[in-house]
Design goal:
globular, mainly beta
């Protein structure tokens, strides 16, 4: 996937009942690399209780998410270069990506943004569970886990196959790095004709900015 490497920088129980976003806290005297927009923590409520989902984007080529539920910790890893998704070290064979060579977006381009490309994903999480599926997809898309959990929950009783497309946009260079943002559209089936929901990421850098404290 040669083109993918050139243009697509790394873009994420039961139906969601409630979600609370918790800010990341760091010690300014000990941390040399600010974690603004790099560590995202959310608390979600599932039918099995409360779960805390923390995603670490410090290394955008190797994103790591942990889900802590009822004292059990599940580790989700996503390697962007080869599009590999692991849950507790097990490769998710039902996770697929198809690169589109489209040079245009059917969505309204965000103010100041430039369309980069779109990429079609599908993921059958039948043996995973909806909460972990939402966390995994959030790791790929960088959209909030709570938003994705709500979208997946709509049709979870009928289908565990998720189809979604990431539309990526770039913005003018800032602090010697290029900011990006993802707009993710979820579909009912493989035809990708009926939209079931959308989720947006915050702006992010795929490489370290200078100065380090700069944010997108």
């Amino acid at each position: 996937m040669k083109i993918f490497k050139k243009v697509f920088v790394p873009l994420l129980a039961s139906v969601l009942l409630c979600a609370t976003v918790l800010p990341s806290v760091s010690n300014a005297e000990q941390v040399t690399k600010p974690e603004v927009n790099l560590v995202q923590t959310e608390v979600i409520q599932t039918d099995r209780g409360e779960a805390t989902v923390t995603t670490n984007f410090n290394d955008d080529n190797h994103r790591i998410t942990t889900v802590v539920e009822n004292g059990k910790t599940t580790k989700i890893e996503y390697f962007t270069k080869d599009q590999t998704l692991l849950i507790d070290g097990v490769k998710q064979e039902n996770f697929n990506v198809k690169e589109s060579r489209s040079d245009f977006s059917l969505n309204a381009v965000p103010s100041g943004g430039t369309f980069v490309g779109k990429f079609d994903y599908s993921y059958d999480w039948v043996n995973v569970g909806i909460a972990y599926a939402a966390a995994a997809i959030a790791t790929v898309t960088k959209a909030p886990v709570s938003t994705i959990l709500t979208i997946l929950g709509v049709g979870a009783s009928l289908n565990t196959q998720s189809y979604y497309t990431i539309y990526q946009y770039s913005y003018p260079r800032k602090c010697e790095a290029i900011p990006y943002a993802n707009h993710t559209v979820f579909y009912q089936d493989a035809s990708r004709n009926k939209v079931t929901g959308t989720a947006d990421s915050a702006k992010f850098f795929s490489s370290q900015p200078y100065p380090i404290g700069c944010t997108p």
